[in-house]
Design brief:
By secondary structure, the protein is an alpha/beta fold. It has helices at 2-19, 59-67, 79-85, 90-96, 113-125, 138-151, 156-165, 171-181, and strands at residues 34-35, 46-48, 51-54, 72-75, 100-103, 130-133.
């Protein structure tokens, strides 16, 4: 009887280790993103602790964010978007300002768990104040919601609400996020 209990316990621990390895409490504190008004050069800006969410910043916006304490930029825009729609080399400007720069590029409708996994990896590397941006902040909210759900064990509805607070406004993108959270990743 004791052997069966030990085996069952070992099996349960193994399942927990394998199944739960992606969920971690390591990462930024989770609250609710609040709008930040009055910072020039940054659209749709909100903040949840040390994570800032926004649409595309200008060069001046990056400088203003740096002055506000942001030391890392995570850009979700594709290279094509950056070259077609942004009139400066964002990575170079960020580095000139002394900010770390990370690119996790994807189109909005293509957001998936892999993007949230990449975000989790970057966020786990340090507690630096971080700007997470795309063109409008819609993708930002989407990947943030998936990250919270898959890596921080935030319930689906709460993760959706937090993603909306971070900038997700598109009903179609919200449905995509729900599908990803439910394991339906077309």
């Amino acid at each position: 009887m004791l052997k069966l209990g030990v085996r069952w316990t070992a099996a349960a621990v193994a399942v927990w280790l394998v199944g739960g390895c992606a969920v971690t409490n390591k990462g930024p504190a989770i609250g609710t993103a609040e709008r930040v008004e009055g910072m020039s050069g940054v659209v749709n800006l909100s903040r949840d602790g040390d994570v800032w969410f926004a649409g595309q910043p200008t060069e001046a916006g990056l400088s203003n964010l740096k002055n506000a304490g942001v030391t890392r930029v995570i850009n979700l825009r594709t290279e094509a978007e950056m070259s077609e729609k942004v009139g400066f080399d964002e990575a170079a400007v960020a580095r000139e300002l002394g900010m770390d720069y990370v690119s996790i590029p994807f189109r909005g409708g293509a957001v998936d768990v892999e993007h949230a996994d990449q975000l989790a990896k970057v966020l786990s590397e340090s507690d630096d104040a971080t700007l997470l941006h795309c063109g409008s902040s819609n993708r930002v909210g989407a990947v943030w919601a998936i990250y919270l759900n898959k890596h921080r064990a935030v319930a689906t509805e709460d993760a959706i609400r937090l993603g909306q607070a971070a900038g997700m406004t598109s009903p179609a993108l919200e449905q995509r996020v729900r599908n990803v959270m439910d394991g339906r990743n077309p």
